[in-house]
Amino acid sequence: MRSNPNIVVTGTPGVGKTTHCEALAERTGLRHVSVNQVVKDRGCHEEWDEEYLSWIVDEDKLLDALEEEVKAGGCIIDWHACDLFPERWIDLVVVLRVDSSTLYDRLSARKYPEAKLQENLDSEIMEVLLQEARESYAEEIVVELTSNTTDEMESNVDRIEAWVKQWKENTRPEGGKDGDGNGTGEA
Ligand code: ADP
Ligand code: MG
After folding, report:
1. What is the mean pLDDT of residues 41-46?
2. From the CB of 131, is ligand 1 less than 6 Å away?
3. Number of H helices, E strands in the chain
4. What are the phi and psi torsion angles at 178 (to 5°)?
5. Given 3.90.380.10, 3.40.50.970, 3.40.50.10540, 3.40.50.300, which CATH number is that of 7-162?
6. Fewest 10 Å CB contacts: which of 17, 44, 54, 169?
7. Nearest C-alpha neighbor of 88 from the set 103, 104, 70
8. Phi, psi at residue 4, to the nearest 5°?
9. What is the rounded average pLDDT of the residues 134-145?
């Protein structure tokens, strides 16, 4: 059993995954696992896609590279997909969402090529990542949160931090034997 939860933070590129994960790692002490970085550092890819200016990911290699770390628990997984991990490894899936105009501005600022920008906008409008999350994980562990503004981000981080605290309370060793030691023996 994990003593720290694993959280997937997912959504279309530009929704704010990395920003949320960094803030959450600082607040909770859990580890920010940037899957993009793992793909690059551990060579979990096939060829470079010239049109989309990104690597074509080798999912088997990627899962091998991450398996040990994720199984140990305490990961905040930052990736624009979520169906890679078996359901039993994951405790919470956060799907970040933004308005089209906000996403357009953020992706333009990144100088995304037109085809890639359009595909990502379509993907956000069609709720592709939300669907994927709902198909891959139990309904009760998937939450959809909006990330249009800094205020929304702060409130999301507060909520997720509170969830982590609650998760830890709920998964403390049986009956809190090593707990408060007040000897009341309450169940
Ligand atoms: P992702 O990791 O999902 O691609 P990032 O975290 O890199 O997205 O965020 C993309 C851009 O949008 C960054 O410039 C970031 O500062 C900004 N951003 C992200 N989330 C918010 C938010 N909730 N409010 C305002 N700006 C945001
Ligand atoms: Mg990112």
Report:
1. 95
2. no
3. 7, 7
4. -95, 25
5. 3.40.50.300
6. 169
7. 70
8. -130, 145
9. 97
Determine if ligand 1 sits within 6 Å of the CB of residue 24: no
Query: What confidence tier does 1 reach under pLDDT thresholds 50, 70, 90?
Result: confident
106 lines ligand 1 (CB under 6 A): yes
ipTM: 0.99
* Cα dist from 121 to 35, 92, 118, 133, 148, whole Å: 21, 25, 5, 18, 14
Amino acid making up residue 183 = G
Beta strands 54-57; 45-49: pairing state = antiparallel
Higher pLDDT, 39 or 175: 39
Helix, strand, or coil (residue 16): coil
> Quick one: pLDDT band at residue 185, thresholds 50, 70, 90?
very low
What are the structure tokens assigned to 95, written together?
């799907």
* Listed residue (137, 106, 111, 136) closest to 121, CA to CA: 106
